Amino acid sequence: MWNVWVTQEKEVGRSSVQIIAGIDLGGTAINYTLVNAKEQFLIQGLCEHPALAKQGPEICLQQIENGLKIAVEKAGVGLGDVVAAGLDTPGPANANGVLSARGSTNFVHAAWAGFDIRAGLEAKLRMPVTYLNDGNAGALWGHFNIFGANSRETTLTVVIGTGLGGGIIIEGEVVKGRVGFGGELGHVLLPYQSIEAIAGLKPACNCGRTGCLESVCSLTAIERSFLPFFLPQYPGHQLGAMGNLHNAAKLVRGLAENGDAMCRQIFQVQAHALGLFFDEMVNTFDPDAFIVGGGALETREEFQHWFLDEIRAGMPPQREEQRGIPIYVMPNGDTAGARGVAIETLKQARQSRLV
């Protein structure tokens, strides 16, 4: 498909300025970035536009195009300078961007079921479009930021939010898997029973299983499992008095950052769960680095360092040669998806000699 587009571009010509767009489509908002052939980002920070995803594909794709026009104007370039676009979305979807026939939490309109969103956007924008799920896109951005776009290192990224996403980069290439579910790190099962602080707890995951990484390391885990488990141990705690676990869960991070004992313990359990998971990944991939991002670490650096130290404290003993694999905090976490898919698209555009 890329070769067809390259042939067409040679026929009609393009501006000498060649820009790649990165488009991060969520359920309610679209975030944009633009990168040039020198790997320089032309938009700093968030550049958001309403998604209108609940109104179905036709309206949402038009919104993406409208927002892209705003983004290029903000960056001081023209829409004709954009030679290709990268799109990332939450799953479930296959590696080619066909959304699950069973629907999606973020795309609830019936017309999204089985919809080929990559091909739809490609037809709308009249330019080549690549697709990644948002976890893989974020992982690519973290990898690029640390090692560069053309690196051969291996990294594993976890993104802690309402759920837990992530991605695996092996020798510079994102792992997509047979049908696009590669890197679904949130649904790797853990030996959670070895975390002493939650002895007796059986953490349920949204996927229907017990003990997935997401079931002990996510905002949902705090609401569903940890607050009901820990609040009886802290009678009179302010979160218990709220009477609403959903709202209370959103306050745990801030209280933990400010030293609240129960909330610190909750984050310590999550860090130790990551330690167990990283140990499994050390013995599976022997990576060059781990990266942790998401809303859980949108905190002051002091708390970030404490959390990373607790991850290491939760890792079982390792071989001397495997100790000390660095753990990084994801930079620019709110723009990670758009930047990651832009970098992937830039790489494909180079391979196709579009840039």
Mean pLDDT: 90
Strand order of the largest sheet: 3-2-1-4-5
Parts with pLDDT < 50 across at least 5 consecutive residues: 7-14
Number of strands: 10
Structural class designation: alpha/beta
Distance between the termini: 16 Å
Cα Rg: 21 Å
**Which overall shape is indicated by the principal axes computed on the Cα atoms?**
globular
Number of helices: 11
Largest sheet, in brief, is:
5 strands, mixed
Beta-strand content estimate: 15-25%
Percentage of residues in helical conformation: 25-40%
Spell out the helices and strands N to C.
Answer: HEEEHEHEHEEEHHHHHEHEH
Task: Please explain how this structure is put together.
It is built from eleven helices and ten strands. Helix 4 packs across helix 11 and helix 9 packs across helix 10. The longest helix is centred in the C-terminal third of the chain and has 25 residues, at 261-285. The protein has helices spanning 2-12, 57-75, 117-125, 134-147, 213-216, 219-230, 245-249, 252-257, 261-285, 301-313, 336-351, and strands spanning 19-25, 29-36, 48-50, 82-89, 129-133, 155-160, 164-170, 173-174, 289-293, 327-329. Strands 3-2-1-4-5 form a five-stranded mixed β-sheet, with helices on both faces. Strands 8-7-6-9-10 form a five-stranded mixed β-sheet, with helices on both faces. By secondary structure, the protein is α/β, with parallel strands linked by helices.
